Amino acid sequence: MTDAVEPGEITQLLHAHEAGSQEAFDSLVDIAYQQLKRLARQQLRRARPSATLDTVALVHEAYLKLFSESGVEWENRSHFYAVMARAMRFVVVDNARRNSAQKRGDGHRPATLDPERLGVDRDDDLTLAVDDAIRQLETFDGRLAYVVECRFFAGMTETEIAESLGVTTRTVQREWRRARAWLHRILAVATPVDT
Amino acid sequence: MNLPPPDRLAEVDALFAELLELSIDERDRRLADHGHDPELVREVRTLLEYDQLDDTTMTSQVGWDTSRWLTVEPDDEGEAGERIGAYRLIDRIARGGMGVVWLGERADGAFEQRVALKLLPSGFLSASAVQRFERERQILAHLNHDNIARLLDGGVDPRGRPFLAMELVDGSPIDVHCNDRSLPIEARLRLLISAARAVQAAHGNLIVHCDLKPANILVTEEGVVKLLDFGVAELVGAGEAVAMSGEHRLLTPQYASPESLSGRPLTTVSDVYQLGLLAFELCCGRHSRPETGVQELLDPSRLEAAPTAPSLALMAADAEPSPVEIASQRQTTVDRLRRRLTGDLDAIILQALAVAPEDRYRSADDFANDLERFLDRRPVAARRLGWPYRARRLVQRHPALAVLAALLVLAAGGLVRQTSTAWEQRDRAESEAQASRALAEKNQEVSDFLVKMLTDASVAEVREDLTVAELLDRSALRAGTELSEESAARSEIEEILGRVYNRVGRAEDARLLLEDALARKRAEVGGAELADTILRLAEVHISLGNHQQVKRLLHEAIELQRGDPSQSGETAQIASTLSLLSYVHGMLGELEPMLALRRESLAIRQKLEAAPGTSTAQGLNDLCFAYKDIGDYEVAEDFCRQAMGIWRAQNNTDAEIGTLGNLSLVELGSGKLDEADRHSKETLDWMIENLPRTHPRAAGFYTNRGEILAARGAYGAAGAAFEEARELLALIYSPDHRAVARLDYLEARLWVQSGFPELAEPQARRALEVLRRTHDENQHLVLQARIVLAQAMVALGEWEQAMADLREVESRLRVGRSDNEMWLRRCRALLAQTGS
C-alpha cells in the first residue's frame, strides 16, 4: 500500500466492505494503519519528548486525513470505526512488539513513546497481553472482542461503539460489562513478561 | 488457575451473560442447577466476582492496569449541573467500584444542604430489586449515630440510575489521617475503638457494613471518626439480607473476610474481622494480607493459614516502608513499637482476625473493650482465651488440652524443655510426635495409650470452658475400661494419671489410682522401682495435708532406695527424695530439719557429678529457697548465683531464668527492690517471648512479678499480674489447691495495701481455709495470711475478733525466720491499734 491512496479506491473498498467483503475490510485497515503510523510519528515529533501518544486524537486526525479531506463520503460511520479500531490496534501492538524486542535486545529503553503513559515496562506487555486476550475472546464471541478492541485501542466511548454496531448504548454497556470481566479473567492468567 | 479449554468458553459465557441479568439470589439458584458441573460454576462465579471489582481493585487483583486506557463514559456518571432527585451535582469527588460520588446540593430550594451523592450505573438494579432497595434505604435512614455518616435520601432517577444522598464528611481516610499526623499507637487505637463502637451501634440495628476499609472510615480535622457507606453494601446488593442469607459477593478483596471470599454467610463478626484488618494496618503499618489477589479469589482455602502476628509483620525483611519509617510514623523506635505490639496487641488483633468466625470476638464491642483494657493496662480477654495464632490446631487452640498434653508428658517423665518446644510448634502433629518421643522410653502400650488419649481428646467436642480435669476424667474412664487387670501397662498408666490428677487438684482421685498402683507394685517389685511409686503417693498426701503420712512414705522410699542391691552408694534419686522430705518439713515450719536435709541432698548431688551440673544446680536452687524461707537472704542470694552460674555454663537459659525469678524474690526479701524489679521483669519478658501462654510455669512467673510490683506500690499492675496468674492456675488446679490459696493470700494482701479491706477479707479467709488444711498452723504462710486477715478486719472495725486472732498469731510467731520479727512488729502495731 502506498502513501497515495486514491479516494476512489477507498470508496470502492468501503462499498465492498459494506457488502460483507473481509478482503475489503483488511485493505481498509491497512490503509488506515499506514496513515495512523505516519500521523503518530508526526505527533511524537511535534511534541516534546515527554508527550503522550494520544490515540483519540490520532484516530480523529486519521479520519480527517483519510476521509473528509480526501472527499470520501461516509454513508455509515460504523465502518469507519471498525476500520480505525483495528488499524489502531495494529499500530499500538506493533509499537509494543518493537519496544519489547528492543528492550530484550540491547537493554535500552525505547525512546519513541512517553514513559509516563507508555514507557512503564508493563505497558508494552499489557498491550501484547490484551491483544492476545482479544484473540481468545474472538474464539467464542466476536462482539465482545470488538468492544474491547474499540475501547482499549481506539479509545472509543460506549456511544461511539453503539453507533458503529447499530445498537443501543445500553446493549454496549451490557456487553462491555461482560467483556471487562472476561478480559481480566484472561489477563489474570497471563504472566507479565519480565523485562 | 488456567482458563477452561476453548470449547467450554462459550458455555461459560452464556451462563455468565444470563446471570448478569438476574438478582443475586436468583443467581445462586441458577448456579445450583449446574451443581454437577463444578468447573462451570467456578468459572462463572469468578467472572461475577470480577464484574464487581472497581478498576483500582481489579488492577491489584489481576496485576495489569487497564483502566487508564479506557475512556470514561460521561453520560452514565452524571455531569456537573445535572439534577438527580432533589439535588444538583456540583463536582465529582470520587469514582469507586460501585459508582461515582458527587458533591451535591439541594436543588429544590427547600433548604441549604450539601451532600455526598452516590450515583450508581443505570440498570444496576433489576426491576424487582428496586422495591427492596427502597425498603432497605428507609431502614438505613433511621441509623442515627454520631460516628456514622447519615443516609439522607435516595431513590432511582428517571433514567434508572439509583442514587444515595449521604451526609457530606470533610475528612481523610483513617490510615492517611494517622500517618499524616504521625499518631502514636494509643491515639490510633482510640480512633479504632470509636469506629468499633459505631459498628456495634449499627449491628444493634441489624445492619452490617461488609466493606469496612480505610477509604470508608474517615476522620475529620477535629479527630471525629465517621463511617461511610454503612449498609450500602446491602443496598446495592439489592437489599439482600446479607446477614441471614448465603449470599456470595465480593467487595474489596484485600479487606474481604475469609467467609466472604469462600462464599459463606456474612455476619456481624465479618465486620469484626475487617476491624481487625484495619487494626493490623494501623498498628504495624503493613497489610495483613498484602498478597490477597486473584489466587485467593479462585482458591479461598489459601486464607486458611492464620495471619502473622503484627509484631512480626512489622519486622518483615525488605518490606516497604521500613520498620524504622513505620516506627517514626508512630513517634517511637522500632524496638519500642515491636515490644508494644508483642503480646496483648498481637493477641487482640489476631483474635479479631481468626479465620473461623466463631474464634473471633463475638461483637465489635468485645473487640473495643479489649482494646480499652489494653490502653488501661488491664489484662486483655484475648490472652485469656488463648492466642489464636498458637491455636491453629486444636491442641493449641484449647488451653486445657495443651495443658493436659504437657502435664502428661511431664508425668510420664518427659523433659520440661522438650514440652515447651513442642508447645511452641504450630503443628499438633509435631507436638504429638514429641510427646511420643518422650514416652518412647516407656512401655510401648503405655505410650500408645497416652498418645491416643490426647488425640481422642482433641477430636472430641471441646468447649471453651472445659477444664483439664474434665478432659482427664474422660481419659481415666477409658483407662479403666480399656486396660485389663493383668495389663503390664495398667499400673504405669494409673501412676501417670495419678500424677496429673494431683497436679490439677484432684488429690482424692489421685490417691485412689496411686494406692491401686502401689498395691500392684508391692506384689511385683521392690527397691528403687517401688520407691518411685511410693514417692508419687507421697506427693498426693502432701496435697491432702497428711503430713505424718508423707513423712512415713518418704522415709520408706529412702530406705528402699538405699537398700536397693542394684544401686551402690547414694544416688540422684535419693537426693531428690531428701529434697522432697525437706520440702515437707518446710511446710510444717520445721526449719532446722528442712535445712539439714537440703544440705545433705546437695552434698550427694555434688559427689555424683564430677563437675557441677544440673543436679548440683537444682540442689543449690533448693537451698536458696530454704534460706529465703528462713529469711537469711544473703546466703540465699549466694546459692542462687552459684546455681545460675552452672546453668549459664550449660547454656540452659530455661533453668537460669527460673533461678533468676527466685533471685528476684530473695532480693525482694532483702529490700533490694530495684534489683528485684529488674530481675522479675527480665524473667517475665523471657517467658512471654519463649514460653507458650499456658505453660504451667507461667503462673509462677506472674505471681513473682505481682509480689514485687505490690512491694513497689504499683498496686494496679500487681493486681493485673495476679489476675493473669489466676487465669492460668484456674486452668490447671481446682480452686482449693494450695497454689491457688497462696495467690488468694497475695491478692488479699494487695487489697489491704491498696485500701480495699472489704475485698481483702473474704479472700484472706478463702486462702486460710486451704492453707490450714495443707500446712501446719505454725507455718509462716499461714501466720502471714492470718495477719493480713486481721488487718482487713481492723480496717472494717471488727476489733475484737482481730485482737483475739492477733494474740494467737503472736504466740506462734517464733524466732527462726529473721523476717518473723517484721511480722511480729506488724502484729504488735495492729494490736496496739485495736487496743486503743
Secondary-structure topology with pairs:
The complex is a heterodimer of chains A (195) and B (836).
Chain A: H1 7-18, H2 22-46, H3 55-68, H4 77-106, H5 115-119, H6 121-138, H7 142-153, H8 158-165, H9 169-188
Helix pairs in contact in A: 1-2, 2-3, 2-4, 3-4, 4-6, 4-7, 4-8, 6-7, 6-9, 7-9, 8-9
Chain B: H1 6-20, H2 24-33, H3 38-52, H4 55-62, E1 83-84, E2 87-96, E3 99-106, E4 114-119, H5 127-141, E5 151-156, E6 162-167, E7 171-173, H6 174-180, H7 185-204, E8 217-220, E9 225-227, H8 232-236, H9 258-261, H10 268-284, H11 294-298, H12 310-314, H13 323-329, H14 334-352, H15 364-375, H16 381-384, H17 394-397, H18 399-411, H19 416-424, H20 428-439, H21 444-459, H22 468-482, H23 488-503, H24 507-524, H25 527-544, H26 547-562, H27 572-587, H28 591-608, H29 614-630, H30 633-649, H31 653-669, H32 673-690, H33 696-711, H34 715-732, H35 738-753, H36 757-774, H37 780-795, H38 799-812, H39 820-835
Antiparallel strand pairs in B: 1-2, 2-3, 3-4, 4-6, 5-6, 7-8, 8-9
Helix pairs in contact in B: 1-3, 7-10, 7-15, 10-14, 14-15, 18-19, 18-21, 18-22, 18-23, 19-20, 20-21, 21-23, 22-23, 23-24, 23-25, 24-25, 25-26, 26-27, 27-28, 27-29, 28-29, 29-30, 29-31, 30-31, 31-32, 31-33, 32-33, 33-34, 34-35, 35-36, 35-37, 36-37, 37-38, 37-39, 38-39
List key phrases describing it:
heterodimer; A: 195 residues; mainly alpha; 9 helices; B: 836 residues; 6-stranded antiparallel sheet; 3-stranded antiparallel sheet; 39 helices; 9 strands
Strand percentage of chain A: under 5%
User: How many E-type strands of chain A?
Assistant: 0
- Which structural class do the helices and strands of chain B define? mainly alpha
Oligomer classification: heterodimer
- Main sheet of chain A, how many strands, which sense, barrel? none
Order of helices and strands of chain A: HHHHHHHHH
Q: Please tally the β strands of chain B and state the result.
A: 9
Mean pLDDT of chain B: 78
Instruction: Give the biggest sheet of chain B.
Output: 6 strands, antiparallel
